[in-house]
Fold each of these.
Amino acid sequence: MVKRHHQIDFASGALVFPGGKTDAEDRNPDWAHQSIGWDGLDPVQRELRVAAIREVFEEAGILLACHGDGRPYEGVCDPILRGAVDRRETTFLQVVQDLDVKISLDSLAVFARWITPVMMPKRFDTFFYVVTAPANQIAACDGHEAVDAEWVRPAEALRLSEAGERTIIFPTRMNLGLLAEAHSTADAITRANQRTLVTVLPEVTRQGGRNMLTIPADAGYGAVTEPI
């Protein structure tokens, strides 16, 4: 997980999963020749997965890619290149082409989909993915949007949040709780592939004189009602 910079307007200072928004370059048709799993995905998932892999590269320095012979890419992700991609001084596609690798679109399993409540002034439609990290790559924050990075067990992240040692926003906490039910990365991926995807659009209801945030009971998180 990475810690967001305090001056970012959304979830500033919070512990979050690496991520971000899509970019026009994520729809470049040349990705068909520079990715694995392209043909098995619809155009929306292609774009979202390219964006997810790019954002993990930018924010955490991990590149989910393989060489031509199928070996996972295990090199160090150059922080200068990461910054250049983030500033759009070069494209992620160009970086991948120069490394002579293909990004692994098919390695990502859809974990969840959340849409920001309608009353929020800034809204997101967010897909969460789960994937096994390359064994020999080193995660490191970019020092720009993310000011820290750490591997942490889901249950421990929730404990840190409860203790007030980390700021973790509602969707992240809910997904950490779902991740904590798995016994391993492989188990988390298996569960994600077997789970029926239910889009979570939290709603505000009035209960006992208080505004409460609720999510669909069939989304996999159980019955969740939280005061705002």
Amino acid sequence: MKIIFTLLFLFAVLTSPVALRAQVFEPEKIKKTSKPLVSVPVIVNDREGRYIPGLKKEDFAVYQDGVKQNITYFATYDEPINIALLLDTSVSTQDTLKRIKDAAKDFIELMNPNDKCLIATFDSQVNVLNPFTSNQQTLKDALDKIQTAKEERTVMHRAVEQITQKFFNNIQGRKAIVLLSDGKDYGSFITKDALLNQLEESDVSIYTVFYKTGVNSKRVIIGSDGTLKEKNESKPQKKKSRKKKKGYSVFIPAQVGLPSDEAIEFLERTADMDAIDSLKTMSDTTAGRFYVSDTTKLRKTFKKVAGELRQQYRLGFHSKDGATDATIQEIIIKVDRPDAVVRVRGKFREK
């Protein structure tokens, strides 16, 4: 009888309202105290810039503010990629838009079946042509509809902000923006510095492809690192002086207040330098890469971008410290290879 009574007592306790409440609220308590996964895209090359494949989780070490972290997630380049293809359709692209669209179609054909792509354009406003999809024909049809804008404004900063904040917000996995532009922003409400602060908090890598526009574009050579140089042009031969003909001549004074050709070229050069700095900084901040391309070579450039998007590792860890939402953490990734060069986002904001 004692054994039967004991079993009945245990049954009554386990089915009581108090015990049931404990079973319900315990998982919720664990959820509140657990820290979210911090996802870090990592690119590892050798000294010659070649991708180093075959690395394992044990080859990496992650440090947050000097504290070594436990790597709880590890993925290789086989992981599907979510790509936002962001194209500049401002007035400056009028003569090159067809080549841009053709190169973008070639880029789409390089996608794997599980990859997803969103296509958006920007000029005086941001236009999202389709949501993320793996259907290549849908993406190509969206590209066919793109037209050059008639207004002069180019809201590049706002376009990057909207795509990063709104369309990648609930996306899991590897995320990247491929941005094709001359880098000149006219009319965005968000400043360059404010945008960079937001990009530090995101886990979206930005690959920027710069192409030259403007009256000075043919006289400027841009290196792969973004440095500008003037072309060495041979001095024009002096024309033989003609004999003055007899007759009357009329002198028309130049219009006052118009900039000289030299001043226009200087402004264009300065604008190119600012544009390049904006694109490079966005890529460097997000562990992406900056490219320079003429529109005639866009297909080759897009192929390089697609290749590098495949050549990534992604590490994840749960932060050990108790950082607040307003704290920016610094990350250092080390690889146990003597010739390894690591490219990684250096900061993130604890969420």
Amino acid sequence: MILRTRDGIPLLGLGTFGRTGPEGLAAILNGLEAGYRHIDTAQSYGTEGNVGEAVRRSGLPRSEVFLTTKIADTNLDSPRALESVERSLETMGLDHVDLLLIHWPSQRDAVPFEDYMGALAEAQERGWARLVGVSNFTIRHLDRTEALLGPGRLATNQVEIHPYLQSRRLVAHARSRGLPLTAYQPLAKGRVAQDPVLAAIGETHGVTAAAVALAFLMAEGHVVIPASSHPGRLRENMAALDLRLSAEETERVRALDRGQRFINPEKSPDWDDR
């Protein structure tokens, strides 16, 4: 059974950053073969073409694969935002995506917030995206979005979350609005694999430390989008769907939080947990 959010986003997805060229296409196909039905891409990844091709080659009905892409921060100004969505659809060979995100808010509001959020809403109204959401938005950005578009319009906010960065202020705010978060880098760039706490819990359940981290995040209500090109690790990560941690194990993972952020480029907003 595929676990989903209220809007139908599968809780376990496959990230595609770096999955370019023939090897990247093979990795995405491996994911689909392993059972992943949520594929995450972005204009800035250079993987939209591979994602569309992988879905076609898989033989799966389009309705069975949930596809997410993101408008790059370099394409936020009008009318470039909507034009970029058209190009993304052409690149993927699709007439719509299931979820369209703003990848990063405009740095220092160089592009007016109302302009690019309005373009996101218009893309949905044109039928180019079934759902819309955001990425790397802070509480302040989420409040501005709700004031502009109305409550409940967003399907998710995709942010960095993993056992070492649990973003409790942002999580609490999102929960108060009924907004699921999507955790990118949920395995902390592979660091969870060597974590003794996660490894010990995993040994108890016969799964990997990575599966423990993913199961913890999903139990917290988050969507997770780990990335891997290795067929074995793809299957190992899927074991998280059937893993249930005890209350004591959950508290042990919560205690790993140390506010450690790995993705923090110059264009980053003022994070809520600084």
